[in-house]
Amino acid sequence: MAREHRDWHPKFKEYMKFIVNHPHYKGMPFLYKNNGEIRWIVARSSEKGLARLKWWDNKRKELRIKKEGAWISKTARAIHPSGEKPCQICGKVLKLDYVYPNKKGGLSPGAMSNAPDRLDGFHSYNLCCRSKQDTGRHKSNLARYGEDRRAYENWSDGDWKAASWLMKEFQKHGVSPDHLGPISLGFKHRPKFRPLTQSANSARNNRMTYEDVSLLIKDEKDEEVISAHSKALWSLLKNRVKNDDDALKLSKLMRENMHFILSIFSYIAERGHKSFLIKNFLHPEYANYSIRFNGFDPKTGYYKEMIKTEGNKKQYKNNAIRYIRISFESLLQYSTKKNRHLKKWMTDEMEENLSQIVNLLKSKAEKPALKKLNELFELVAKNLATKFKPAA
Questions:
Q1: pLDDT tens digits along 302-340
Q2: How far is 272 from 275, CA to CA, in rounded Å?
Q3: 28-58 as b/e, with b when 16 or more CB fall inside 10 Å?
Q4: How far apart are CA 166 and CA 191, in angstroms?
Q5: Which residues pair with 309 in a beta bridge?
Q6: With contact defined as beta carbons under 8 Å apart, do 74 and 58 qualify?
Q7: pLDDT, tens digit, for every residue of 261-297?
Q8: Helix axis angle, 314-336 relative to 244-270, nearest 10°?
Q9: Is the dihedral of CA 214, 220, 224, 227 positive or negative?
Q10: Number of other CB atoms surrounding residue 162 within 10 Å
Q11: Distance in angstroms (rounded) separating the CA atoms of residues 340 and 263
Q12: Contact assessment for residue 55 and residue 88, using Cβ atoms and an 8 Å cutoff
């Protein structure tokens, strides 16, 4: 959240005043800080963020927008008074609609949806500066988007190579591949996606709906959908979700669970046991194949056949090395990143369990260490599950 303190462009500052004084945003909670500054950014899971989310939901009801899919971005666009905004970084004014050509031959909006985090419901920086400010959309990442770094960064299970190459098939047809179960919430990086427009995919913003949860439960009849490290929490709560509000609560708890998972992995890696983590939670062996999909249908996202061919190319070996490197780099960044706005994770109970795991690893007792680690995942899940209060 450090970007809140940068010296924003004068045009964007004027725009902020225009928005907070406009009647369309009347009643928006926590408009100002104690020092009188406009509170443009809030953390989604904070008290302020939840209050603003309720405001957006009430606004949706006023406009009779159905609470499904990208409802919050539709609401943000519907109430925006001008349909355009200046960039926080450079001040360039762009329209919020899909009018700007992109490299795929399609169109992009001037700014991506981001409510309730941003007061007006849109990212502060526009398309003009997106590649510089959004590391997930940096040009180098966009160029190799077929290999989704987020799968590595979130230590996602699943055949990451097959999933990444299937993403390329979507992109060839100008379609945005959507993970039914977001990998940032602990779900697998599976070679199965829903075709969406870029705007609809962006608007989902790692939130699940009741429909998503129902489809994931249905998929589980044929395959695993959740990563091993997050299975405990998913198993405890998935059948308690009865509506979209419940699904949103589950999404938040699963994101909090991932905070614990990545923190635990960071702790183990920092104490010299990376090989244990690689052996049990990473799958560099998937890099050894080239993959093609026969009968791919961009309208449905389905394909008739996936053909994997094993090879010994140097690029495959380098791909595996890169996969492992990024996974551990992400742990280091996660453990050292400031302004995370997440609760302290290292309790006395957590420290005692982790000490036992590390001592087992020091004595080369990997199987007992893995058992103890899985018990720790279950403990974290049980504690988080107590926070889940179904909607009335």
A1: 999 999 988 777 778 888 888 898 899 888 877 766 444
A2: 8
A3: bbebeeeeeeebbebbbbeebbbebbebbbe
A4: 6
A5: 290
A6: no
A7: 999 999 999 999 999 999 999 999 999 998 999 999 9
A8: 100
A9: positive
A10: 19
A11: 12
A12: no
Residue for token pair 């998503």: 212
Q: Indicate the length of the chain as a whole number.
A: 392
Q: Tell if the pTM clears 0.70, that is, is over it.
A: no
Give the amino acid at 235.
Answer: S
- Find, among 275, 258, 237, 240, the residue nearest to 377 by Cα: 258
Closest CA to 68 of 204, 261, 202, 166: 204
Q: How far, in Å, CA of 60 to CA of 148, rounded?
A: 33
What sign results for the dihedral spanned by CA atoms 308, 167, 281, 383? negative
Q: Please return the burial class of 324, using the count of CB atoms within 10 Å of its CB with bins 0-12, 13-18 and 19+.
A: middle
Q: What is the CA radius of gyration of the chain?
A: 22
CA separation for the pair 150, 331 (Å, rounded):
12
- Tell me: pLDDT of 136 over 70: no
**The pairing of beta strand 98-101 with beta strand 93-95:** unpaired
Q: What is the pLDDT of residues 47-101, one digit of tens each?
A: 898 899 999 999 999 999 888 767 888 899 999 999 899 999 899 998 888 766 6
Show Cβ contacts of residue 5 under 8 Å, excluding neighbours closer than 6 positions.
Answer: none
What does the CA dihedral 382, 229, 162, 176 come to, rounded to 10 degrees? 40
Terminal-to-terminal C-alpha distance of the chain = 33
Q: What are the residues facing 195 on neighbouring strands?
A: 177
